[in-house]
Amino acid sequence: MINYINSRTNQKVVHASRLKDKKYIKEYKEFLIEGVKSLELAIKSGLVKEVFTLKELKLPYNIPQYLVTPEIIEKISINQNPEGVVTVCQLIPEKKPEKFNKVVYLDDISDPGNMGTLIRTALAFNYDAVILSDKCVSIYNPKVVAASKGAIFSIPILTGFLKDFKKDHKVIASTLSDKTIPLEKCKKIESFILVLGNEAHGISQEVIKLSDIFVKIPIDNIDSLNVAVAGGVLMYYFK
Amino acid sequence: MINYINSRTNQKVVHASRLKDKKYIKEYKEFLIEGVKSLELAIKSGLVKEVFTLKELKLPYNIPQYLVTPEIIEKISINQNPEGVVTVCQLIPEKKPEKFNKVVYLDDISDPGNMGTLIRTALAFNYDAVILSDKCVSIYNPKVVAASKGAIFSIPILTGFLKDFKKDHKVIASTLSDKTIPLEKCKKIESFILVLGNEAHGISQEVIKLSDIFVKIPIDNIDSLNVAVAGGVLMYYFK
């Protein structure tokens, strides 16, 4: 289904442009994604409502496709140099993961770039799910969506407190304590939840109390690694 | 030396606020850093000119310190929630690294967050230097400075083409080719240059021609990792 829209005040354009605002994301239960790669993963998830694009795309027939002007893309895109493809999606329903052995728990991650990158990395390294604490930034924040490169559609994302998910898992906390061991000395584990903490405050005390293994990536010269980088190194090691 | 400034139109404040603009960074050969942690590394490098702060700091006596109002910090800061400490620094002179065995080459990295994070990671994992190709984003871009967390002051950063730096180093390129091997199968090497490529286009052909080892981090479900995450995993592996 291909249609043409030329006006920035077209109702569909106005509606889409509102979805930059979290108030409307909540109200309409829809959000925006940008670019072709994210769109591919969104199509697989069955959550695409409609696509605004500068050039005709090969899409499944049942997805409405609107050929629009650069001015319209500029109006609905959050990027300064938009790729020319903006898609309206339905919110992602929480889905139960098939397996639940290799899990990442994000404890109050506040930077949207870090959050999206951590979800992208968890998907790439075949983790079974990502759990978000209540205070994490929303996965529908446009910068999370962009940094995840569509991964939010493909890996089960759950929300809640660590205790409610821990069964026979070992909880691995990336933090300093008297029990902390360097990563190289840490044994590989079958069933675990890897915890990564807030950029400024680290892992919360409640979560530390539930942790079994404390691990650090040995570093020098500087206080810490970026949490998305630390997460990448740890997820690769334990995968 | 502690002084007070209350006016947003004070000459020093106006001067500092101009340093958000790359034109003035070039003209005055000065740039801004934010926060206490970056300041600590800047002090060690001897490049601090003056500090604007909301609260008195313990600083070496020869560094001028201006106690200012939140409005002034807001004027000179690039952050939405500034930490309350903004420092004017001299540009960083290129310094020859003491050793040159473990080196990272950034080939046209364009995202400032990635660039700063990669420099921070290289310092944390004790790399000897970072070399930047000509088309990399400037290290004085405020987002690079912020993401590096002061690392730009502590690790030698050189600019130029790979060929001019390669001696007995093996060049390790993180890219796909018919010769690419998975990271786990890659031997540890004494003297190497690890190459990371542009976010959209990967490593340039000229650089690929100079490469000895082609390596990939095995991933599934998604096209690629974020380059700062891939860089972190690779730097950790080869460190």
Give a verbal description of the structure.
The structure is a homodimer of 239-residue chains. The first copy, chain A, contains 8 helices and 12 strands. The first copy, chain A, has 239 residues and is an alpha/beta fold. The longest helix of chain A is centred in the middle third of the chain and has 13 residues, at 112-124. A 7-stranded parallel beta sheet of chain A has the order 8-7-6-11-9-12-10, covered by helices on one side. Chain A is elongated, with a radius of gyration of 20 Å. In chain A, β7, α6 (142-148) and β8 (157-159) form a beta-alpha-beta unit. In chain A, 29% of the residues lie in helices and 22% in strands. In chain A, α5 packs parallel to α6 (142-148). At the A-B interface, α5 and α8 of A face α5 and α8 of B.
Short description:
Two copies of one chain form a homodimer. By secondary structure, chain A is α/β, with parallel strands linked by helices.
Note the topology.
The structure is a homodimer of 239-residue chains.
Chain A: E1 2-4, H1 11-18, H2 22-28, E2 30-34, H3 36-45, E3 48-53, E4 65-67, H4 70-76, E5 85-90, E6 102-107, H5 112-124, E7 129-132, H6 142-148, E8 157-159, E9 170-174, E10 181-182, E11 192-197, H7 205-209, E12 213-216, H8 227-238
Parallel strand pairs in A: 1-4, 3-4, 6-7, 6-11, 7-8, 9-11, 9-12, 10-12
Antiparallel strand pairs in A: 2-5, 3-5
Helix pairs in contact in A: 5-6, 5-8
> Mind summarizing the main beta sheet of chain A?
7 strands, parallel
Count of helical regions of chain A: 8
Determine the oligomeric state from the structure: homodimer
Low-confidence stretches of chain A: none
User: Structural class given helices, strands, pairing of chain A?
Assistant: alpha/beta
The string of secondary-structure elements of chain A, in order, is EHHEHEEHEEHEHEEEEHEH
Q: Rounded to an integer, what's the Rg of chain A over CA atoms?
A: 20 Å
Helix content of chain A: 25-40%
Question: Beta-strand percentage of chain A?
Answer: 15-25%
Name the pair of protein chains with the most residues at their interface, and give those residue counts: A-B, 32 and 32 residues
The count of DSSP E runs of length 2 or more, i.e. the number of strands of chain A, is 12
Task: Provide the residue-averaged pLDDT of chain A.
Answer: 95
Strand order of the largest sheet of chain A: 8-7-6-11-9-12-10
The shape of chain A, in one word, is elongated
Task: Give the N-to-C terminal Cα separation of chain A.
Answer: 42 Å
